[in-house]
Design brief:
- The chain is α+β, with helices and mostly antiparallel strands.
- The chain has a single domain (19-148), classed as Gyrase A, domain 2, CATH 3.30.1360.
- 28% of the residues lie in helices and 19% in strands.
- It has helices at 56-70, 99-115, 135-147; strands at 24-32, 38-45, 77-82, 88-94.
- A 4-stranded antiparallel beta sheet has the order 1-2-4-3, with helices on one face.
- Helix 1 packs across helix 2 (99-115) and helix 2 (99-115) packs antiparallel against helix 3.
- The chain is globular and about 45 Å long.
């Protein structure tokens, strides 16, 4: 937390977005549910906050593709949701995982995005805004993220955070 502001209930509101260096993967939250089940939320950041963002058709298509394709690699995927700031996504998984395992899941799924020939469920029957998609845009974002895979583990810029 910066600027001596009070701690907020939402984890990302306590993150100094000026100090991070996208792209990255990080644990954003971990919850133990009443019966002992664990869920972990990962921040999958594609774009540098307050500098760049993903356009909505790209986000929408990545959401569809990742949500569908990731479940081919793990039965523990609960959700893949876009951030309102349009800089990344939250990946929610059941159970604790080594970050390397999450990186493999994300990498394999984004490779599936590159190999895709269409955006799943991008139609008026299965989607609330079926016309708002771009396979090419999603593939470009996936390609860029994958090309910078060696940076995924460094969340904060040098000298920050």
């Amino acid at each position: 937390m910066t600027d001596n502001k009070p701690r907020m209930n939402v984890e990302s509101f306590n993150l100094d977005h000026r100090a991070v260096a996208a792209p990255y993967l990080r644990v954003a939250d971990r919850k133990v549910l009443p019966h002992g089940d664990v869920i972990v939320k990962y921040d999958v950041r594609f774009a540098q906050p307050n500098v760049a963002h993903l356009e909505m058709p790209v986000i929408h298509s990545l959401e569809h593709l990742f949500a569908e394709k990731s479940r081919n690699h793990s039965a523990r995927v609960i959700d893949f949701s876009p951030m309102g700031c349009q800089t990344g996504f939250y990946l929610i998984l059941q159970g604790d995982h080594e970050l390397a395992e999450v990186e493999r899941l994300v990498g394999a799924t984004l490779q599936d995005v590159l190999d895709a020939t269409e955006v799943p469920a991008a139609n008026e029957v299965q989607c609330g805004w079926g016309a708002n998609h771009t396979l090419e845009g999603a593939q470009e974002a996936a390609r860029t993220f994958l090309q910078r895979r060696d940076e995924w583990g460094q969340v904060f810029a040098e000298g920050r955070g």
